[in-house]
């Protein structure tokens, strides 16, 4: 019969990880098994980091947003599983590349994900011939939205169609 001792190390100096150390005596031999914080992050392209509330983790929704974190120098960081550099958390909780973000978010044909401001508005069949003059929106923060690709216009059904198809009533996509 073996004897098992488990030691939880939770306080660590800066730069060191916490660990769970399990020692088991089996047939007069002592087996030591280390489980570190890194084993907490089980999804691909994740890593454990000590992070503050600002900036938030990069996600598919905020990947083009620039965050300005004001006065969080005194905030204590918390260890969390975040996406590795170059990866973004999608709506399923996975860490994916930027290209995979765009594909997953914009599911209709001829759509793409772009960080856009309120002006100019998305080109639609109703406004396809209007020239927008956007004044003083340089400080406005853009938001990621699925918009029609260049040369396509949003129709009444929400589809992205060519200008020639704008007069058609029936949706061409289900």
Automatic annotation (TrEMBL):
Gene3D superfamilies: Laminin
SUPFAM superfamilies membership: Serine protease inhibitors (SSF57567)
Organism ancestry: Eukaryota, Metazoa, Ecdysozoa, Arthropoda, Hexapoda
Domain TIL positions: 41-101
Protein name: TIL domain-containing protein
Pfam families: TIL (PF01826)
